[in-house]
């Protein structure tokens, strides 16, 4: 197995077509990935169609884990994939490109767990599912028809990740628990501040959670951020 491939799991959310699941297993085998998690499947991932499409990736299908969406909590970072581009005001859908994602993952040490999350063939991921991830990646495509077949999307992203491994020096980003500590401090501060509407307060909460997830902070950076937040907390809590 290639270095770094074992830290990444592919999560398929409610896949609907056995052949697509099999094709995903095949491209995972092509690029040296083996961890497949299927969340609430809507078809049989071990059907003849799936196994035939998997080709040399049959073992990945047979070892695939079936789970519910709570499995996301097991990962240090979760990356949602979407074809629906947002704007700077649509925070959950402000994406990075596949090569940007690959560069980030290439610099992360192998003991960090990453979930790459792919949605349904018919409708992709819901906003609720995207909000449970740290940030979003999207694959550029022609405006007329942005949606790719799920196995093609997996192949493009895994190719970029595979290509980038070994080209960067390594670091260990903060864990999911450490992210929660920072997010909790942001939440306390934001809830102490005055906003014109509750919606604007919620927007700030979502924004800073997204920023922290996307940044993949080192522990030193996180220590500096947390130190500043604690000083800000002392100021706002005196008011």
Determine the CATH superfamily of the largest domain: SPOUT methyltransferase, trefoil knot domain
The helix tally amounts to 9
**Helical fraction:** 40-55%
How far is the first residue's CA from the last residue's CA? 56 Å
Would you count the extended β strands for me? 7
The figure for the number of domains is 2
- Strands of the widest sheet, in order across it, are 3-2-1-6-4-7-5
Please tell me the CATH architecture of the largest domain by its name: 3-Layer(aba) Sandwich
Structure classification: alpha/beta
CATH topology of the largest domain, by name, is: Alpha/beta knot
CA radius of gyration: 19 Å
- Poorly predicted segments: none
Note down, in words, how this protein is organized.
Helix content is 46%, strand content 12%. With 239 residues, the chain is of the alpha/beta class. It has two domains: 5-164, 3-Layer(aba) Sandwich (Alpha/beta knot), CATH 3.40.1280.10; 176-238, no CATH class. It has a seven-stranded parallel sheet with strand order 3-2-1-6-4-7-5. Helix 1 links the parallel strand 1 (8-13) and strand 2 (35-39). Helix 1 (18-30) packs parallel to helix 6, helix 4 crosses helix 6 (150-164) and helix 7 packs antiparallel against helix 8. The longest helix has 20 residues, at 219-238.
